[in-house]
Write a structure and sequence with these properties.
About 55% of the residues lie in helices and about 0% in strands. It is mostly helical. The protein has one domain. The chain has a two-stranded antiparallel sheet. The longest helix is centred in the middle third of the chain and has 33 residues. It is globular and about 75 Å long. It starts with about 35 loop residues before the first helix and ends in a 23-residue tail after the last helix.
Length: about 450
């Protein structure tokens, strides 16, 4: 997801009801929530940490090594964010007297939020401690004690510096301590949805990260002996950077760093479009309903033509670079299904959905061998199935636009991209333009803009 924050005048209006900006009007390009140099600083620290661990690993448990890399990445992002960009000034004000009573209520809210996720982990067998997520559980046993010790001092320190300290975390605390006055169920519901996003994606991404880090640290360099060897390594390494970054961002959601969740996708349709793309749901959807792959590797298509192999592989890697660049641009703010600050730099200067476009185009290049050597019927079937997968990502993009368009900064950004982006000409193409402009609405909600009002800004 990519976006963040609302004006009081637009609280009761959805994006669809906003008057369009006249074509002759001059649109100001909105600043990004993260500076590009800050984002790349995180990548540099990530790579330095991995290099150091490759030669001098202080421990051997992969989850501990993963936490070291995540910590280095976080320092690379948040030190310049705090000391140079001063992002804390967006959320925090000069300290007041503070309130230990209010802070302990927030601590109860934090315990209730963690308990909510823990209950789901206990309920669903998918999250068994000895299964796929074993690295995650090992990391939790390391992180949780330190988190428990630091939580109350951190909450009190932040509480003293909030313009509106009675936030979603405070309301969650009031709920769990049975003090139901002034509690908004909508705000608490949004707060818990944010924790649900973290509870689903963090263990999945951290597990992928641990597996990829272990593979990277023990990579068989003898495989780098030809075009295929170099392609395979580059393809793997680019996706490693992606999962390493997002593992850190799902964990580091803090008001101190201005990376807190402003709002979470409120509709079941938006959640469905996102979750089907990830395990454990993708195994069913991809294996039983969208199995477009015929089993032929794209490299076998080129036989003894190394120049064509190199050209085709370079195009695939270029698209993956754009995809990973899109993740890097978020700095410490990446998260599916949530709003954590509008990102307008990097590839987002040219397209609202560069990651989705690059990933889906790369899948077509990877799967193109089904266009030759099989029957016409099989070719048409594979194309339709891959088109269905593209359609899922189209729905993800549109539900994200709907959610983020509650934010006037995103609306300004979207209008600018529609006038200056690399795909701006598509709006004038019949049918394609209509598909590009379409967006579902929030008709089922009375006041959707309240999802990003200041009252929902608790730690998540």
């Amino acid at each position: 997801m990519k976006a963040r924050k609302s004006s009081q005048k637009s609280v009761h209006r959805s994006a669809q009801n906003q008057a369009p900006t006249p074509a002759h009007a001059s649109l100001q390009y909105p600043a990004s929530a993260t500076h590009a140099l800050v984002a790349w600083s995180g990548v540099a620290c990530l790579l330095l940490a991995v290099t150091a661990l490759n030669f001098w690993p202080p421990v051997h448990q992969i989850e501990r090594l993963a936490l070291i890399v995540m910590a280095a990445t976080a320092l690379g992002v948040f030190v310049p964010d705090l000391l140079w960009q001063r992002v804390q000034r967006r959320t925090l004000i000069a300290p007041n007297s503070g309130s230990w009573s209010r802070s302990t209520t927030k601590l109860a809210g934090l315990a209730g939020s963690v308990g909510f996720v823990a209950l789901l982990y206990w309920l669903f067998p998918e999250y068994g401690a000895q299964g796929f997520y074993s690295h995650y559980w090992a990391a939790i046993r390391i992180v949780l004690p330190a988190w428990a010790v630091l939580s109350l001092p951190y909450i009190f320190w932040i509480d003293r510096r909030l313009s509106e300290p009675r936030d979603a975390l405070w309301q969650m605390g009031r709920l769990v301590t049975l003090q139901w006055q002034d509690v908004s169920l909508r705000v608490v519901g949004q707060h818990l949805l944010g924790w649900l996003v973290k509870g689903f994606y963090l263990p999945l991404m951290f597990t992928y990260f641990c597996n990829d880090l272990d593979k990277l640290l023990h990579y068989d360099l003898t495989r780098l002996n030809g075009l295929q060897g170099y392609f395979d390594w580059a393809y793997f390494f680019l996706y490693f950077i992606d999962v390493a970054l997002v593992s850190m961002t799902y964990l580091m959601s803090l008001k101190l760093t201005d990376t807190q969740i402003r709002s979470t996708e409120p509709s079941a349709f938006g959640w469905l479009a996102a979750l089907v793309c990830y395990e454990p749901f993708w195994s069913l959807i991809g294996g039983q309903y969208i199995a477009y792959d015929t089993g032929r590797g794209w490299g076998s298509w080129f036989g003894g033509m190394p120049w064509l192999y190199a050209l085709w592989g370079s195009l695939i890697l270029l698209l993956v670079v754009v995809y990973v660049w899109s993740t890097i641009a978020f700095g410490g703010r990446f998260s599916n299904l949530t709003h954590r600050g509008i990102i307008t730099n990097g590839p987002y200067r040219y397209s609202k959905h560069p990651a989705y476009l690059a990933k889906n185009l790369s899948w077509w290049l990877l799967a193109m061998p089904f266009m030759a050597g099989v029957s016409l019927g099989q070719t048409v079937r594979s194309c339709l199935l891959l088109g269905m997968l593209n359609g899922i990502y189209y729905l993800r993009a549109k539900t994200e636009e709907r959610h983020l368009s509650l934010d006037p900064v995103y609306r300004q950004y979207a209008q600018w991209v529609e006038q200056h982006g690399v795909l701006r000409g598509l709006d004038r193409v019949p049918l394609i333009g209509a598909i590009a402009r379409w967006r579902p609405t929030f008709e089922a909600y009375r006041s959707p803009a309240s999802f990003i009002s200041g009252e929902g800004g608790g730690e998540a």
